What we know:
The complex is a heterodimer of chains A (374) and B (225). Helices cover 32% and strands 21% of the residues of chain A. Chain A has helices at residues 18-27, 62-71, 93-102, 112-123, 138-151, 168-176, 209-214, 243-256, 274-287, 299-302, 309-323; strands at residues 4-12, 15-16, 33-34, 47-48, 83-87, 129-133, 157-164, 200-207, 221-230, 263-267, 295-296, 325-326, 348-349, 355-362, 366-373. In chain A, the strands form three sheets. In chain A, strands 1, 2, 5, 6, 7, 8, 9, 10, 11, 14 and 15 form an eleven-stranded mixed sheet that branches. Chain A has a two-stranded antiparallel ribbon with strand order 3-4. In chain A, strand 1 (4-12) and strand 2 (15-16) form a beta hairpin. The longest helix of chain A is centred in the C-terminal third of the chain and has 15 residues, at 309-323. The longest helix of chain B has 16 residues, at 55-70. In chain B, helix 1 (55-70) packs across helix 4. Chain B has a single domain (5-223), classed as Peroxisomal Thiolase, Chain A, domain 1 (3-Layer(aba) Sandwich). In chain B, strands 1, 2, 3, 4, 5, 6, 7 and 8 form an eight-stranded mixed sheet that branches. Chain B has helices spanning 55-70, 94-106, 114-117, 124-133, 150-161, 197-206, 210-223, and strands spanning 5-12, 16-19, 25-27, 83-88, 139-144, 167-173, 178-184, 195-196. Chain B is an alpha+beta fold. Chain B is globular, with a radius of gyration of 17 Å. At the A-B interface, helix 3, helix 4, strand 6, helix 5 and helix 6 of A face helix 2, helix 4, strand 5 and helix 5 of B. Strand 6 of chain A pairs antiparallel with strand 5 of chain B, so a sheet runs across the interface.
Amino acid sequence: MNPVVVSxxxxxxxxxxxxxxxxxxxxxxxxxxxxxxxxTTSFQSNVAGTISGMSYHGRESLVMxxxxxxxxxxxxxxxxxxxxxLATTKGEIDFLEMSxxxxxxxxxKSAIRFLLDQVVELTGARGGGLVVSAACTSSAAAAARAAAxxxxxxxxxxxxxxxxxxxxxxxxxxxxxxxxxxxxxRPFDKSRAGLSxxxxxxxxxxxxxxxxxxxxxxxxxxxxxxxxxxxxxxMTGPSRESEGLILAITKALKSAGCxxxxxxxxxxxxxxxxxxxxxxxxxxxAVFKNSIRPVYSLKGGIGHTMGAAGLVExxxxxxxxxxxxxxxxxxxREPDDDARGWVSSGPQPIARGTMALVTNAGFxxxxxxxxxKS
Amino acid sequence: xxxxxxxxxxxxxxxxxxxIRSGLRQRFEPGETAHMLLKKGIFSHPFKNFxxxxxxxxxxxxxxALALQDAGIEYMPxxxxxxxxxxxxxxxxLQSDLEYFEDYVNSGRTLSRGNLFIYTLPSSPVGESAxxxxxLGPLLYAAGEGNSLAPLLxxxxxxxxxxxxxxxxxxxxxxxxGLYFVLDNASGPDRPLLCxxxxxxxxxDSDHDITAMVQKFSFVEAGKA
Lengths: 374, 225
């Protein structure tokens, strides 16, 4: 009994809504732009994927402004008995910034447990809440946890919410690690030089097929399988052997009861760093035995949305399956040798009825793989 | 009815440290703290760059070492194991967040230290343990409403039932204390175990205090004799 996705939405640097992100990606234009939120002169880069119209260091945190856009507009019906799994890496870290810089807020309010309480209030999902944080795999891991609850019969309705924002705290950190590209990120490109930080919020409402049918909910797709692993290798660098991601993908395929022949497209993590993209291509080549699949990354379009990345990518992958179209990898001009033939700067068709593999990786060597079908 | 069981527990508090199944229970001498466990040879193999770790990562590593020892799971050099780890605490990475950002602000908002930034993720403490102990399974930080370990145990059970991994470490670590469980889903009447998950949940649901939980699990273990 695989969970089905009955409702999903997002806000990204392309704007509010899944369609805004989808259209932005298909346009091939990046939404990554110069940062105006804080001074970047000391940093390695000055660009990021930010959402316009938000107030920085105001009364409400950036992530709550994003989530407010998603849930306060109306039209989203979240059952009160839904369990909630919230994914984030840094949540309301702007509150801590305000505390240290201006003494105008309480740093302890930035703890992610506080955000969980607010998201319960905002969404009305009162069936029990859990916040999950697993670096840049956070929301993919959260989706996996929600799916496991439904598959094991411990829940029949789970709301997965994900969010992270671009702040000076995060930007300075990635800059200190020399992880930022001066230009907007160029995933899988021969001349890629790092990632661009991005921000987003997203949600997916998962239900058991029985409950979805009973409530006459439209089914957007199915979360058919998942696999989580760790490289157990290095805090910031991915494994040079890719064994962790290979393990996660292998587990996800097994969990979905499918084989590599069922996978028609791969939504990669594709951060744009030399090491991540090479690690992923090594894993894809190993698992798919060098049999080419279309691979794409969203991060040239919206930046690396950190804890929100996995869920945004899962929702866009569902859209890709429904539209039978692989979105382009924005900013990729000349594919690196190991990605040639797999990654494209233009949209490509997908065979109807195929499944998508969504991969993510993050600090501490964490890896996730989700298998979805429409 | 599932076959999820506890294979071992490692714990440490301000007063001492120990394991439940093995019966190890050691009080700190006056002036000693948990951070002297490194010198006591708690790790079976050298912990690379231990001095770089933040406090929560160190406490997590101590508790995980004791829990694995109690479960009879040995580190195998060069052979990583499919073991998951789910960790929690009361404040996430708040102290490391403050340490990183205050250092950055105090340096004039021009330079920041990557080695401090690494620990601003709530999942970094379990990440350090995964690297040291060679844990290849699922890894995440999780926290429910309140300070209960119950939602973590539920997630561990789901991981085991779903076949995501055969063994999961679940626990908490704070500045002065830590507690980690080893759960598995193996079957067989002769395998060593502490108690089933139902008993464990009863204890963790009724007490959130580590010393009280250790006491109750020790009674369970003693009752088997």
